[in-house]
Structures are given as structure tokens and as C-alpha cells.
# Entry
Amino acid sequence: MTFIKKKTYEQHDNEEGSFYKNSVKPFEFSERLENNLDIDLCVIGGGLTGISSALNLAKEGYSVALCEARTLGWGASGRNGGQLGIGMRKDQFFIEKKLGFEHAKELWNLGLEAVSETTKLISKYNIQCALQKGVIHAGFSKRNMDDFHFEIDHMHKHYNYDGYKFFNKYEIKEEINSDIYNSGLLNNDNYHLNPLKLLLGLANELVKLKVRIYENTPVTKILKDRDGVKVYSEFKIIKAKKVIVCCNGYLDKLLGNIRNKFMPINNYVIATEPLGEEKAREIIKNNYAVSDTRFIIDYYRFSEDWRLLFGGGETFTSRFTHNSMKFVQQRMYRVFPMLKKYKIDYSWGGTLAITVNRLPSFGTLMEEKIIYAHAYSGHGLALSTLAGKLIAEKISGKSERFNFFKKIKHLSIPGGDIMRRPIYASAIIYYKIKDFFSLN
Ligand SMILES: Cc1cc2nc3c(=O)[nH]c(=O)nc-3n(C[C@H](O)[C@H](O)[C@H](O)COP(=O)(O)OP(=O)(O)OC[C@H]3O[C@@H](n4cnc5c(N)ncnc54)[C@H](O)[C@@H]3O)c2cc1C
# Structure
């Protein structure tokens, strides 16, 4: 079986515009792949899925090499909204209807573990990534009030979970200084943080565990070998017993048709100039992160130096938009008109992968010599970190928890290579219109 990556998908190099990129020192421990290598395990992709896989596997005693096409954290993991959320992208009620209660409950427990695993790593390795407690789901339409009450009730009854706090119209205005919300749901088990600082903190642990890290080393194909796989980079070949593919929205054709099980979409973020703590707390009183209830969501939070990082707006063409600042600004001013007088210092975007049912896609190929995990559908900060732990469990012979994800069935996005983006775009227009009418 041969998988050939013909061209790298969306190699957008706009990270100079990223607040995160400018908040960290470059990673200094990358090597050059100058000779062919023989190793236990090869990880492809230097995002959180890849780094967490490498970390957990190296801790188990395996020799590990990690290849990243650009630099560590170059993908979604170093560009995202920084919201570290429990659960999955969809609520439990939705998941129960799709998969049945027992399976939904297994996923709920894993979703809780994803956040606790991440915060444990942060404290174990003393990673300074500006961890803050609390994320509010802000209700855009009046109907959200009932949805929130239903969720509180449902989670209490069926999961014995009481981590939510409801805000009515007046209370949500106290928390978030905007006139556009009708209600809100705070979850105090969710956090927000600087994701690139988290990622590089974990990467430093890889160095201590002697993981070989090769940046600027795109993998071009994976071939089956007698007792393992051969991983071809542009430079040399890595022979490994297994390969862990963690390329997410940038996967392209490296795993053949697997790419049809998700849609890569682009999402954009801006960062204001620093507003100072006092002004910031006039906007979000308790420094929570926020995401709203629309289909194309707005999400935002304050950074460690009190900039508002505001994300929103998606494009789904194969071309990455380089002038996204304007349309994200417009979304931000709609929520916070008083921010018009502040400068925008950074504007960037990234690619994420979403599945039809918005649940992650885990799997194996080539008689389990290839293992992959991706497509957390915009909810991957915690889940990608957990994925690495589950992949290590699987490779060490304990497949059960990996299989909770693997057994989720995913529909292919219809339309093949040519038509799937237009088809997806048409569906999005429908939801954009719905968003518009829930606001107006
Ligand atoms: C703008 C934005 C906002 C988001 N906000 C949030 C949020 O607030 N909370 C949340 O939970 N999730 C959020 N997400 C989603 C989250 O960031 C992702 O789910 C998660 O980071 C996925 O991690 P990953 O390691 O699987 O993929 P990535 O971080 O995308 O890493 C994949 C890596 O693989 C590399 N790669 C690809 N092909 C090859 C190859 N052939 N050879 C070598 N390397 C290769 C890429 O260069 C890339 O670095 C957001 C995503 C975006 C884009």
C-alpha cells in the first residue's frame, strides 16, 4: 500500500502575524535529518497530537522521531483560540442520539480527562502558559436560554455533572460588556491559555526524553516495509515499526482517501493592542474566555498581556485568506463597538479539520502500522493532548480507550476532490443565513 502526498495542503506561512508566535522564543533543539534512521516509532506532525504522542511514547521507553513540515506548533495547535474545553464539539445530548448513551458516556469521561490531563502536564512540567479558569458559552438567540437550562438539567440527571452556572440577560451583561447576548452558561472546569506556550513547554520535555525532532521535514510518502514502515521525507528515509500520523487539517493525500472523512476549513483571529487589566475587566469582568452559540462562532479571550484575542469567520476554499483582519474586526465591533478606537496588532489564521458529525476521527491502516488521530472539529486543544496518551496506550497493547474513538463511524464529505468544497460552501451559506436571522 502506498500513500503519496502530492502537494502540501495549505502551507500558509502567515505566522509572522500571529500574537502567539511573537509571544515565544523559537524552539532551538531541532535536528537535521542527514542520514537514514532506524527507530521504533515515527510521529508525523508537530502539533499537540504529535507532541503528546511522542511524549507519551518516549515515556514508555520507545525510541521516537518526530517530523514536522514547518516548525513545531506551526499548525492549528499554535494558532488557535486557546480555549481548553471538556467534552466534544457537540453536546452530550447530540452524541447520545448518534451513538447511544453508553458510548456517549465513555466519550464524556474522556472529554473530562482531556482537560485534566492537560492541566496536570502544565503543572507537572511547570509550563508558563497563562492558564486561566472559566469559559462562557454566550447565548445569541432567545431560544438558547431554554437550551442552557435543558443542558444543566440533563447533565445533572444523567452524568451527575454540576459544573455549569447559568446567567440571565442581566447577569451575562455583567460578565461580558456587550448588548448582544440574551443568556450565558459558564463552565468552570474549562480553561483558557496560550496554546503555543503549552506546546513548546511539552516539546522541551521531548528533548529531555531524547526524542529526535526534525523541523522543516515534510513527509512525502509512507510505504509498507517487511516488519514495519518506511517514512520518506524530502531528505532521507526513516524506518520504523509504526508511524503515527498527526497532520490534521494539513493531511492532504498522505493517507489517501482518509482526507475525504473531514473538511479542512480556515478560521481567523485578531489581537488588539494591550488594553491594560482595568479596561480588560470592564469588558470581561472575570477574565473568562467566551464562545457564542452561532453556527459560525465568535470566540474571544484576553491574553496574558491583556490584548483581546478575537476569533471568528471561516473560509473553506483551498486558498488561505491573507487579508482576514477586516472581516474579523467587523465581527468584533459588532460585539464590542467600544473597541474601534484601539489598534489591531496581529491578524492570523489557521486550518482545522471538521467531520460531518463533529466528532474526532481516529483509526489505523496498513495492519495497524499506521495510526492516526485528527479532526477534533474546532475542539481539539484538550482532545489532541489526550489523543497522544490514547495512541501510546494502543501501541503498548491497551486499545480499549483508543477504540472508543476509533469505532465512531464517519461519513465521507460528498463531492470528491473537485466538488466537496462548493458543496460544503452551499451548506455553510444556509447556516450563515440562520445565524443572521437569529441575530436580527
Ligand atoms: C483559528 C483556530 C482556532 C481554534 N480554536 C480552538 C480553541 O479555542 N479550542 C480548541 O479546543 N480547539 C481550537 N482549534 C482547534 C485546535 O487547534 C486543533 O484541533 C488542534 O490544535 C489539532 O492539533 P493537531 O496536532 O492534531 O493538528 P495541528 O496543530 O494542525 O498540527 C498538524 C501539523 O502537521 C504538520 N504536517 C502536515 N503534513 C505534514 C507532513 N506531510 N509532514 C510533516 N508534517 C506535516 C503541519 O505542518 C502541522 O504543524 C482551533 C483551530 C484554529 C485553526
Observations:
- The first helix runs from residue 19 to 22.
- The domain at 2-79+197-261+357-418 is CATH 3.50.50.60 (FAD/NAD(P)-binding domain).
- The longest strand covers residues 344-354.
- The radius of gyration is 21 Å.
